[in-house]
Fold this sequence. Notes:
The structure is a single chain. By secondary structure, the chain is α+β, with helices and mostly antiparallel strands. About 50% of the residues lie in helices and about 15% in strands. It is built from 12 helices and 10 strands. The longest helix has about 35 residues, at about 230-265. The protein starts with 13 loop residues before the first helix and ends with a helix. About 50% of the residues are buried. It binds flavin-adenine dinucleotide (FAD). Flavin-adenine dinucleotide binds near residues 125, 127, 134, 209 and 368.
Amino acid sequence: MADRRFLDWPFFESRHRELAAALEEWATHHLPVDHADVDAACRGLVTALGRDGWLTHTAVDPDAPGPIDVRSLCLIRETLARHDGLADFSFAMQGLGTGALSFFGTPEQQQHLQRTRAGEAIAAFALSEAKSGSDVANIEMSAVRDADGFVLNGEKTWISNGGIADLYVVFARTGEATGAKGISAFLVAGDNPGLEIAERLDVIAPHPLARLRFNDCRVTPAALIGAPGQGFKIAMATLDVFRATVGAAALGFARRALDESVARARERELFGATLADLQLVQGHIADMALGVDAAALLVYRAAWVKDGGAPRVSREAAMAKLYATETAQEVIDKAVQIHGGDGVRKGSVVEALYREIRALRIYEGASEVQKVIIARDALAQ
Ligand SMILES: Cc1cc2nc3c(=O)[nH]c(=O)nc-3n(C[C@H](O)[C@H](O)[C@H](O)COP(=O)(O)OP(=O)(O)OC[C@H]3O[C@@H](n4cnc5c(N)ncnc54)[C@H](O)[C@@H]3O)c2cc1C
């Protein structure tokens, strides 16, 4: 059983402790799933997470709109990541893919949330382009207004759930101004005939991922989310909420690596004692436990500040994501070391964690981008 003492920290209310206990029970019975076919695995996970109510936390309830509880999001991501990286991915994308609708959608647009919250529709967030990953204000994909609505042309890449999503939130240049102020957000159905899956992308921790091509992709005026030219603001506001949750996923991976290492150190015998008796190994374990707790403090601090009503938590979320993902990489590397040859054996838990953690230091703002956010804030004080 993973360390649960952090749940007594003052960031949480009793409903959070109940949520964590109930999800732990659910995850123990349902995870991990078979990853052989990642598309099928993710579809199955979204169905199961929706059926059992967990996805209601990812988006606002269209019939009773209220704020999304970021502490719940983080607790769920941490728990799912500790049990199965693909389960965390499937949960997280339902939130990131619909954040624009939760925060800026019209009541009609928000009706789509009924299906994503129930696990009946899969969502995706399509912002990145080949030339504009970190530099998102320079995206080139165009959306041109005509008598019937908008016509979208261009490409998006690295789109999670690309190929299996039922709805995509797509950011395109509408040209109200240059740079960040000339981008708008659109809701595009997965079966729109102008949307083509140009390429499926394979990465070290496989999940559904694609390059999308938009070829005279027509959408009605009702597909516009928020006002024209607000797209960049919508993307940043969405990331502001979900960025700390990437830290929570990293925390889940790190906590699992620590648990696996403690178990291994206790049982593995060498030099007439156990691995746990070696002080250099104890040093590794101490570093790992310290990193996990420090990451947890930053992640749940960011979530707590947001839930307290802060309009933006860019600094806190950047600190949480940066520290938790970078530290998880170090914690997992130590776990591989403690496991010796078994640590690099394909199919072992720590080998999978070693692959799972890497992309989190790159997506939703690479670590260097988080440092820029933190430094700008510090210099502005
Ligand atoms: C597994 C995975 C899933 C993804 N899912 C999605 C998704 O669902 N939707 C979506 O829109 N995008 C998604 N992305 C894209 C992701 O957000 C981008 O890969 C990321 O923003 C980096 O962009 P890039 O790959 O173009 O790298 P670049 O922008 O070329 O950056 C390369 C490197 O340059 C450095 N760098 C960047 N900016 C700075 C800076 N200001 N100062 C110093 N150094 C810097 C960093 O080390 C960075 O890693 C995903 C990516 C991956 C790998």
